[in-house]
Design brief:
Number of strands: 2
Largest sheet: 2 strands, antiparallel
Structural class: mainly alpha
Strand content: under 5%
Distance between the termini: 28 Å
Number of helices: 6
Shape: elongated
Helix content: over 70%
Length: 124
């Protein structure tokens, strides 16, 4: 099932914050993405209802297996494309911003070809 780019971004952010902080709450996501708390709350409700996250009674957010699968895919794409662009001479901030856009539109086949090329060059 194809999900929206915004949902992919939220899932990736939850994944990153979990790796960084151990636990995640809506306020952490709002701060990280510089979004309003109400916007994040609506997004979390949608992600929960679609089975991508679980929200504990204390407000802690965790990815379900389905959510983690998408989040790790987006994270891999983002980090690999960012590194590649920096290696090509792109400013790091621009590379990160561009990778964030590219990661959502790139087909599986194209990403795998780029990944193979990057890894063969020793950049993985």
């Amino acid at each position: 099932m194809k999900i929206k780019e915004s949902a992919e971004n939220y899932l990736e952010t939850i994944y990153i914050l979990t790796k960084r902080n151990g636990s995640v709450r809506s306020i952490d996501i709002a701060a990280e993405l510089e979004f309003s708390k109400p916007s994040v709350s609506i997004a979390m409700k949608n992600l929960r209802e679609n089975g991508y996250i679980k929200v504990d009674p204390d407000g802690s957010i965790t990815l379900t297996d389905k959510g983690k699968e998408i989040a790790t895919k987006m994270y891999e794409r983002h980090t690999l494309i960012s590194k590649w662009l920096v290696h090509l001479g792109v400013d790091e901030q621009i590379a990160v911003e561009d990778a964030c856009r590219i990661e959502h539109v790139l087909s599986f086949e194209s990403f795998e070809a780029i990944k193979k090329h990057i890894c063969e060059a020793g950049l993985c």
